[in-house]
Design goal:
Elements (H helix, E strand, L loop, with lengths): L3 H11 L3 H6 L9 H52 L8 H8 L3 H24 L5
Helix pairs in contact: 3-4, 3-5
Amino acid sequence: MPDTEKVIQLSRIFHVTTDYLLLDIDEAPQSAAPAENNRETEQRAAEKRMKRQSMRMHFGWFLLIFGIISFSATLVGAGLYAQTLTEWRTNLGRYGTALFDSWILALFIVSAALTLCGILILIREYIFIGKE
């Protein structure tokens, strides 16, 4: 008795059912359309994967660029606010007081998080490119 896996492989190669191979039943070989259909399905699935990866990469670049711009704007804003201060309460001087003793700290944290998320998404997508 032949191995089941080999029978299945033979049925796929010759486009016939396993009954045809094992029981010697008269039947016409199946057309090659299912194999072509499988290739088309696989190709569409690969295109969807690439499109999703492209979208993730664009999102990562958007987060990175937006994070860097907002990070820079936060630092410039803290510098401008620091010029108006006459005294400071941190060891970092006037600039540290402007940054850490005001609402600017929240913007600083959010912009740093956006930048970091963008970097992590891009690293993940560039490392795993084509491995899905």
